[in-house]
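Section 5: illustrative case.
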């Protein structure tokens, strides 16, 4: 009997010890918000490595996006396909959207989930124009995208028909419809709820089947590296286009008023814009912007502000709208995003053009004013102090106190003629 008691105590001790020192389950949360760019791909590469080091049970990609770069999206899909760690796509927070490129990424994830009142879809490629955007039906582009979408849906056992309709019909579905039609596996109102619902699910990764252990898992938020954060900001087409416009306008200001830092600001802004665009720019648009800059410079160097100045602003504005190539083969973005892009860029471009033109114009006006020395030479000033020859004293000139000196010295109350000016000091001549 005594042996049995000792054996049971040992067993209980081992169980208690294993509970205390058991490995805590972790999940890594990776956020995608705003326009998807190559920076998200670079960050996801790093996030997967972080998840491996942390021995995370899963990576949760939070999706809240109007779409973005198709090249970056396809690279991210390849990363997800080859990830040894299960990746869960989750459209979150409540009420958000994961349109176009966001839907492609969701379909590629091992588990697809949506929060209440969220929407996915709008994957048909769109042609862009400042006058509006419209879905296109080029079979070469459509078939390539259908192949990507249908392959991912089939690989994860999702509704392939609905997935294809996202592209061919620009279909949109909310979370309830997506769950009902088998487009997603889970509906959850929060990350904690999602972790409870996916716990125990069996997913097929690049290294085989894995059973998820996410119940009460510790949540680790992935923070973008500074480099990735910077590239993410400047890769947004709106930001990169505005940076290029600001750079050109700053150069115009620098040329019209050297020494105020306009040249440096312009060079930095243009360099950041080119990095954000990946040096992939529209040549015709670039020519328009350069021509607009030349017209503004010409206008600023001539009196008034007329036809050349207005033409320059128009060319700069239209050039900024096309400086980033937004072909459907490169960008999977919703029509709503295109509309917002156009309105925000036109408004900002016009305001910036007018402000920079006004500043440069005023600087040139000041520079063209006649020298004040020409106006005061020969005028009379009255000394209010006695000084030795070439010693600085004070005089009254046009009711104001001025510093002054004379080679014969100054005598209080005596009148002197102004013959020159050295900085703030008047050079006087004695009136005989």
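Designed sequence:
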């Amino acid at each position: 009997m005594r042996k049995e008691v000792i054996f049971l105590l040992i067993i209980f001790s081992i169980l208690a010890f294993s509970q205390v020192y058991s490995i805590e389950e972790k999940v890594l949360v990776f956020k995608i918000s705003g326009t998807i760019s190559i920076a998200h791909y670079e960050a996801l590469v790093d996030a997967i490595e972080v998840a491996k080091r942390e021995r995370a049970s899963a990576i949760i990609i939070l999706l809240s996006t109007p779409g973005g770069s198709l090249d970056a999206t396809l690279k991210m899909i390849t990363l997800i396909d080859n990830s040894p760690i299960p990746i869960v796509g989750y459209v979150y927070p409540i009420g958000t959207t994961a349109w176009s490129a966001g839907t492609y990424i969701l379909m590629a994830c091992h588990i697809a989930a949506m929060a209440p009142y969220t929407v996915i879809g709008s994957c048909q490629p769109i042609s862009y124009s400042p006058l509006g955007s419209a879905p296109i039906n080029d079979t070469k582009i459509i078939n390539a995208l259908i192949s990507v979408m249908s392959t991912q849906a089939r690989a994860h056992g999702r509704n392939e028909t609905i997935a294809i309709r996202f592209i061919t019909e620009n279909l949109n579905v909310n979370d309830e419809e997506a769950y009902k039609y088998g487009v997603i596996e889970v509906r959850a109102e929060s990350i904690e709820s999602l972790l409870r619902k996916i716990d125990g699910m069996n997913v097929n990764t690049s290294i085989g089947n894995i059973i998820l252990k996410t119940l009460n898992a510790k949540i680790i938020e992935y923070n973008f590296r500074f480099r990735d954060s910077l590239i993410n900001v400047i890769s947004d087409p709106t930001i990169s286009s505005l940076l290029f416009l600001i750079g050109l306008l700053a150069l115009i200001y620098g040329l019209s008023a050297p020494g105020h830092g306009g040249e440096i600001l312009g060079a930095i802004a243009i360099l950041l814009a080119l990095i954000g665009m990946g040096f992939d720019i529209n040549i015709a648009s670039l020519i328009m912007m350069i021509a607009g800059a030349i017209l503004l410079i010409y206008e600023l160097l001539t009196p008034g502000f007329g036809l050349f100045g207005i033409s320059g602003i128009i060319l700069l504005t239209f050039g900024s709208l096309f400086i980033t190539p937004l072909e459907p083969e490169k960008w999977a973005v919703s029509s709503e995003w295109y509309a917002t892009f156009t309105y925000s860029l036109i408004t900002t471009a016009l305001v910036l053009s007018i402000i920079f033109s006004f500043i440069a114009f005023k600087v040139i006006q000041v520079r063209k004013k006649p020298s004040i020395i020409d106006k005061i030479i020969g005028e009379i000033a009255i000394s209010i102090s006695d000084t030795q020859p070439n010693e600085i004293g004070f005089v009254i000139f046009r009711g104001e106190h001025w510093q002054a000196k004379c080679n014969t010295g100054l005598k209080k109350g005596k009148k002197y003629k102004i013959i020159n000016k050295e900085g703030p000091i008047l050079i006087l001549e004695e009136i005989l």
